[in-house]
Amino acid sequence: MKTSFAIIILLAILSVTAHAGVGESVKRVEARYGKPEEVVREIGSFRALGYRYRGLMVIVGYVAGVCKTESFIRRDHRRLSEADVQPLLGLSTAPGMTWKRLSDFKGDPTWIRSDGKVVALLNEHTLLRVQEKDFHEPK
Q: Helix, strand or coil for residue 133?
């Protein structure tokens, strides 16, 4: 009985701490992806860092140390299928939230998170971009 209770508590803790992504701090994102491999871009308070995660290149854009956007692309630039996309969307899904598929945007699949604050676009089936709904990356 004590063992099963301990396992339930451990699983609950892991489910709360396992998600990273849009809205999370640099420290929290690095807990999932590890240390960044490169600085991709810096403009004012915006900083994009490149990580390696499960065969993917992940570019995370931060403003003032908070993740505003994540982009996932295979290093060999092969297509991402719907089956590939779902676990990646799950990285930016807090407990109790879901993703809803929307109409395609210019032929590209799109989703919105159930809280309405985060959107995702699968650009040409090779790059998945997940970001705050009203975020615009500085040029």
A: coil
- What one-character-per-residue DSSP string does 73-129 give? EETT-PPPPHHHHHHHHHTT--TT--EEE---BTTB-EEEETTSSEEEEEETTTEEE
Q: Are the C-beta atoms of 48 and 59 separated by less than 8 Å?
A: yes
Pairwise CA distance, residues 27 & 118, whole Å: 20
Span 87-105, average pLDDT = 90
The residue with tokens 């590890």 is 34
Check: CB of residue 47 under 8 Å from CB of residue 53. Answer: no
What residues contact residue 105 under an 8 Å CB cut-off, 6+ apart? 121
Are 92 and 113 a contacting pair, CB within 8 Å? yes
**3-class DSSP state for residue 11?**
helix
Full-model pTM: 0.81
Helix (H) or strand (E) holding 15: helix 2-17
pLDDT digits 0-9 by tens, 119-130: 999 999 999 999
